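Dear colleague,

Following up on Tuesday's group meeting, I ran the structure prediction for the two-component complex that the binding team flagged. I've pasted the input sequences exactly as they went in, so you can double-check that nothing got truncated or mislabelled along the way. The C-alpha cells for the whole assembly follow below. Feel free to forward this to whoever is handling the docking comparison.

Inputs:
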Amino acid sequence: MSSLSQALWVLLLGSLLGLELIGKVPPTLHTPLMSGANAISGITVLASLTLIAQADGNGALLLLGGLSLGFALFNVIGGFLVTDRMLAMFSGRKTKGAN
Amino acid sequence: MDFASYAIDLVAVLLLALGMKGLAKVRTARSANGLAALAMGLAVVGLLLQLQPGPTAWLWIAAGTAAGGIAGLITAQRVPMTAMPETVALFNGCGGMASLLVALGVSLFQHEQADLVARISIVISVFVGAITFSGSIVAMAKLQGWLDTPDWTQSSLRHGLNISLAVACLAAGLALPGDPAGWPLWGLVLASTLLGIGVTLPIGGADMPVVISLLNSYSGVAAAAAGFVVGSQLLIVAGAMVGAAGLILTQVMCTAMNRSLVSVLFGGALGAKAGGSVGGGGDEAGYTRIVSCSPEECAMALESAERVVFVPGYGLAVAQAQHALRELSKLLEANGAEVTYAIHPVAGRMPGHMNVLLAEADVPYEQLVEMDTINPEFPRTDVVIVLGANDVVNPDAKTDPSSPLYGMPVLEVDQARQVFVVKRSLGAGYAGIANALFELPQTAMVFGDAKAVLQQLCTELRSQGVGTKTAVAA
C-alpha cells in the first residue's frame, strides 16, 4: 500500500514538473520540443527490458518484450536524432551558403 | 547494488528534467536534447545492472535494440524536414505500441504476480497505448495524403459509433482485472484500436497537428501506466512529465488556431461542408475580381520597395523553395530593402515547423517575426509576398462572422500597400475555404510553382542590376 501511495506521489510530482518545465517556450521551438518530448516518452524501453529480463525463458514473453523494445527504441533513437537534426539548423548558422 | 541503481535513477530523472527545460530555450536546446538522450542511456544502464538479465534475455535485447535502433537511425536521417509532423506521429505511435505490448505480455503471462493496482494499470496502458498507436498511424496517413476523410465520418453516425466503442472499452476494462488473460484483454485491444481510428479519422488535416500533440501527451500517459505495471518509478516520472508537457503544447496550439480542444476532437473537419479542398475547378467559380500579374511586374514592385515581408506557408516547403526564397531576400537586402518573414504560429503543419524549414535554408533567426509583432507593421509595408500560405492570411477570419475561420488570429497582410500571392491555382486552402484576400484591389496573383516564380524573380532583378555583387548560382 505504501508503494502505491509512493507511486501516486511520484505521478503527481512528475506531472507538475512537466507543467512547470514547458511554461514558456518560443514558438520556434515547438516542433523540436514536441519531437524531443516524444523521444523521452520512449522511456517505455525500461518496461520492455524488465519484461524481457523477467520472462524466465517464456518464448512468447521474450517475443513480446523484444518487439516492444524494438518499437520503443525506434521511438527513442529516431526521436532524439531527428530532434538533433532540427536543432542543428538553428545553431549551425556559421556555415553560410549551404545549398 | 540497490543503492547504486537508486542513485542512477535519481541522476537520470534530474538530467531528463534539465533536458526538457533546456529544450525550451533556443540557445540550449541542442545540448539539452543530448542531455535527455544521455539520461535515457543512463536509465537503461542502471536498469540492466539491477536486472542482471540471463543469456537468452540478452539475445532478445540485442535483437530488439538492433531492429529498433537501425530503423530509427535510418528514418531520422532520411526523412525530409517537410515531413516532420508525420514523422513525429509515426515515432509516437510506436511508443504507444511499446507500452501496449508490455501490458499485453504481463497480462497474458505474469498476471499471477500482478495485484489489483497493476491490473488496473494494465487496462490503462492497453487502452491508451492502443489509441496512441492507431490514432498516430491514422494521423500520419492523413498528413501523407494516404487517407481521405470519408463522408460518413462527418455525420453524427460517428459519434454513435465512437460512443459504442468507448462503452465496449469500459466494459472490457472493468472485466479485465478479474480475467486478465481472457476475452476482456482482446476485446479491450480491439475496441481501443478501433476507437483510436474512429476518433482521428474524422478530423480534418488542418487540425491534425493538435491531434499529434495530444497523442504525444497520451504516449506519456501510456508510459507512466506501463511504469505502474512493471513497478518503475523512473518510468512513472518521465511518462507523467511528457504527458503534462504534451497537454501544455496542445493548449498552445489550440490557442494559436483559435480552436478549442473539444471542437477539434468532436467538431469534424473544418470546411468539409464547403466542398472538397482538392478539386480546384469548383472553387474557382467563387472568385470574381481576381487580378493576376507576371513575375516581371512583381519584380518591378520589389525593386522599388523599401520594406518587404514574406509570408511563407506549407506550399513553400512542398515546392522546396526555401533556398530560392533566401536567395531572393539576399538580393533585396543588397538593394537596400528591409526584409522580414512573417511567421504565423501554425505556419507549416505544426507550430514552429516553418522556423525549422527556414533555418534549414540559412535564414537568420532575427528576420523571422512572430504574428503579434509584425501585424502592426503591415500598414507601413510596401510589398507583401504570400508564398503557399492561404488560410493564415484570410481577412474573413477578422471580418466575416459566417466564415468557418472567423476568430482565428491571422496575419493582417491586407493592411499592406501591395500584396502578391504566389499560388499554383485558385484552389482553396488546407481548410477548404475561399480567401477574400485574393479579391482585394491591392492584391495580385502570381500563378505558378513557388520555386519557379522565385527563381524568375531573382533572374529578373539581376537583369535589372540589383544586388549583383551577392549573386550566387542557383
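The beta strands of chain B are 307-312, 338-343, 368-370, 383-387, 418-423, 443-447.

Cheers,
M.
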